[in-house]
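Example record

One chain of 74 residues, shown exactly as stored in the release files.
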Amino acid sequence: MPGCNGVEATRRIREYEQSHPEREPARIIALTADAFPENRERCLEAGMDDFLTKPLRPDAIKAALARHVRNGAS
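Predicted structure tokens for this chain:
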């Protein structure tokens, strides 16, 4: 979303989803170099489902996807 960061975009997406309960919520995973605990909390409080930090490790991606993607889902 132009003009807003990931936290603000997540808030807007979650607001939209609340007004459209028939839709399945999007899975949102933060990817950031800002690994401070307060940033993680801010992202999760905004409605993100998970939080990954750079440098990104393949095992971290796999674990996050396993937590949030159902078998057979695309």
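Notes: The CA atoms of residues 27 and 70 lie 11 Å apart.
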